[in-house]
Amino acid sequence: MTVREVTQKPPRPGPAAPREPRLRALDGLRLVAALMVAAYHYGGRGGEVTEAWGTSAKDQFPTLSGYFAYGCLGVQVFFVISGFVICMSGWGRPLTSFFASRASRLLPAYWAAVLLVTAVFALPVVAYRAVSPSDALVNLTMLQQPLGVDRVLGVCWTLWAEVRFYALFALCVVLPGASRRRVILFCAGWTLAAAITEAAHQPLLEVVLMPEYAPFFIGGVGLYLVHRDRRDVYAWGIVGVSFLIGQHYAVRSLWNAADPDAFAHRTTVGIVAVVALGFLAVGAIALGWLHWANWRWLTVAGALTYPFYLVHEHLGWVVIHGLHIGLGVPSAPTFALTVVAMLALAWLLHRYVEKPLTPRLRSALAKPR
After folding, report:
1. Is the pTM of this model over 0.90?
2. Which of 85, 90, 195, 293 is deepest in the core (most CB within 10 A)?
3. Could you give the CA distance from residue 240 to residue 237 in angstroms, rounded to a whole number?
4. Tell me: the pLDDT tens digits for 239-287?
């Protein structure tokens, strides 16, 4: 080794990647997807919400219940949005910063929602069963799903899918450094591996690679590549293949025409149409067609979406029962008031939990050691 090599200074790091301008239309689409899921939980399914209404939701909404049943596809729309956003936020970011950003975004509101729902369901006046204290504590880890523990929040299964996507993206893209080539290889490799997993029937691979949900995350990643360069043929190929595979899984899991006891019979055309609209909506944002939707209130809508999504189902049952059964409020006003109440609660969680805790947690996790 020469003296020159010993004394040579290490190269300075390059400039940080420029911050993407906020896509406020994406915030609005997030809230639309959350409201779709809420419509499904309040009026598009059977189960425990029947106890809240006192009768089947089909009796409360004879015409709309069939349409509300498609609201569960809001989850798939969420996954497409997530693929887009995670690729955007992970591009040019070191692994520690990426982890700190994701953990600080998810955990404060999630912890608050778990504690709040557990406390409300433990009240004697609430008819719904609370999980055991031990299971409630496990729920704070977000690992209740693989551990087979009772869930406090019914929607948390989607967070388990999100966490697995974050881990795959972090290991395959963020850790080695994001680039167009690496992202394309990640999308192609995951698509092929998920298809092989489906054919092999290997439970471990199914947990890791999520064949049923992978196309939606991958499609969102592809749409971010389109956002960067609308002439990228590979990106458009990723989006097209992801849609074709994703609609297959959506139809397979939600088309229930053969079940005579199903709450509602969704049509194949209806399922494919909702999935297509989700891809098209994110695609329109990626192409800049909705840049005019730049109202500041959309940022607030985006901020309320996550806490609303966490609390709306279980606490919504309590509100519906109190208004409809307790106070005799008709179905439609009960539905609307419940949504408004959950949005108000989401604002409180955002204002008094997320705003103070998220930056502190992010700073603590990203601090160099």
Report:
1. yes
2. 90
3. 5
4. 999 999 999 999 999 998 778 777 888 999 999 999 999 999 999 999 9
